[in-house]
Design brief:
Order of helices and strands: HHHHHHHHHHH
Distance between the termini: 23 Å
Structural class: mainly alpha
Helix content: over 70%
Strand content: under 5%
Length: 245
């Protein structure tokens, strides 16, 4: 009798090729998510710009009320910007969930329904990882890999709270090294890519205009390619779901 072999995950280079292919094919849709994020966050962004100008003008002001109002507005503007950025992240998951067939604005609006449940899930995951970290760093790393698909279970399988955490653990169980190796591989690729595109900065002073422009361009590039890692992990998630059936 032939032995039943343990199913394997998709080879890492195939995963990367597929992730880049899906990203490139749907790049316009990912960009539109960023556009809608900016449009929704336009008011708090404008407030931050106004407050930056006011703080420069009122730098010598001794008025406590002035700085209290500025702090209050700044805090809430920053909070709302974070809120819309998190929704952008969730919207990218939803693009995948709907196979890129729904309009980007509709997907971004849908992300609002997931925000608070996602926030609760992230707080729970951070607390659990924090408890493992108190034990030792190694257990925190181990369970960080076990819990890495909590958001995927939340979005794609409608799991909530501890059920999403348990689902991620069950999916990774038996495949920890395979998942860990793929995550390290992707991290190494991104690290090498970052070194290459940041290399021109070595030849210019940090005070030069080019340095500021190129640093801004690097941030834009990072945002542009960020969905590749999301898709890469999603493909691993799909593999594990098929195997664990």
């Amino acid at each position: 009798m032939a032995e039943n072999k343990k199913p394997k995950l998709t080879p890492v280079f195939n995963l990367l090729q597929s992730a880049i292919g899906i990203w490139w094919k749907n790049l316009k849709k990912f960009l539109m998510i960023y556009v809608w994020t900016i449009l929704y966050a336009l008011i708090p962004l404008a407030l931050l710009v106004i407050m930056a100008a006011l703080s420069a003008v009122g730098a010598l002001s001794q008025s406590i009320a002035f700085w209290a109002i500025l702090f209050f507005l700044g805090f809430w503007s920053f909070t709302f910007i974070i809120y819309f950025l998190v929704r952008a992240y969730l919207a990218m998951f939803l693009l995948l969930k709907h196979d890129f067939k729904r309009p980007e604005k509709e997907v971004y609006q849908e992300s609002a329904q997931y925000f608070w449940s996602y926030l609760a899930l992230m707080i729970l995951t951070i607390i659990l990882l924090g408890l493992w970290f108190l034990a030792l760093v190694i257990p925190a790393i181990i369970f960080g890999v076990f819990y890495m698909f909590t958001c995927y279970a939340f979005i794609f399988e409608d799991k909530r709270d501890i059920d999403a955490v348990k689902r991620s653990y069950d999916l990774v169980k038996g495949y920890w090294w395979a998942v860990f190796g793929r995550v390290i591989f992707l991290g190494l690729i991104f690290w090498l890519f970052g070194l290459v595109i940041a290399s021109p900065l070595r030849f210019f002073s940090s005070a030069m205009a080019f340095s500021y422009v190129w640093t801004g361009a690097l941030q834009a590039i990072n945002l542009l390619i960020m969905p590749i890692s999301l898709i890469f992990s999603y493909l691993i998630f799909q593999d594990l779901v098929k195997i664990k059936k």
